[in-house]
Design goal:
By secondary structure, the chain is mainly α. It contains 12 helices and no strands.
Length: 205
């Protein structure tokens, strides 16, 4: 089902496009990306972890198998044998990561709903303590779940490739370089990331 952007986010996109002509070009040529807001659940964060360092197609295949087996709640994940999870496509490392998340939720060490009312820094400091959850995962969670308009996954390769193309650079910028480029997009770097992913996808269709 197609999701609509809130008026607040639409206005933020407008302000962002006024900060950079290249981003305005993306909006004018390809329109805004569709909203990819996700529900604030264990299942969503699990899905983001599954997507670490593998293709979207591979991640979706594994995720669909977990749905089919009804292993998308933290309780069911904790009850499932590791070897069975591996047979569904998860690496042992990701099984450890997701189970650590499930344990933290089960023991009330983190409360995802509370994150909706916490500053970004507090959310980051809580999630970074969980095994296997780093900047990329947290930024994606903040961006797609909490709709943090300034969450910036500067280490994402697709974003780096999009910046290289958009800015007509000779080589793909590293994370530090993308972070410097993104400074002018504050406090809308998260929306800039959405535009760059949108641009990368359209350019590679």
């Amino acid at each position: 089902m197609k999701k609509n952007w809130s008026l607040k986010i639409l206005n933020s996109f407008k302000k962002l496009s006024e900060l950079d002509d290249d981003l305005k070009y993306i909006v004018n040529k390809y329109n805004l990306p569709v909203s990819r807001k996700e529900s604030n659940t264990f299942e969503t964060l699990m899905r983001i972890i599954i997507g670490q360092q593998i293709s979207r197609k591979a991640a979706e295949s594994i995720y669909q198998k977990l749905i089919n087996e009804k292993i998308t709640t933290y309780r069911n994940f904790l009850k499932t044998d590791d070897n069975y999870l591996k047979d569904l496509g998860l690496s042992f490392r990701k099984i450890i990561y997701i189970k650590d998340l499930a344990i933290n939720i089960n023991q009330n060490k983190i409360n995802l709903k509370e994150f909706e009312n916490l500053p970004s820094e507090d959310v980051y400091n809580s999630l970074i303590k969980i095994k296997g959850i780093g900047k990329w995962t947290i930024n994606n969670y903040q961006l797609f779940v909490l709709e943090d308009c300034d969450a910036w996954p500067g280490g994402d390769l697709a974003i780096q490739e999009a910046i290289k193309s958009l800015k007509k650079l000779d080589v793909r910028p590293c994370e530090n370089e993308t972070n410097i480029i993104a400074e002018k997009w504050k406090p809308f770097r998260g929306l800039a990331a959405l535009l760059l992913w949108h641009y990368y996808s359209k350019k590679n269709d």
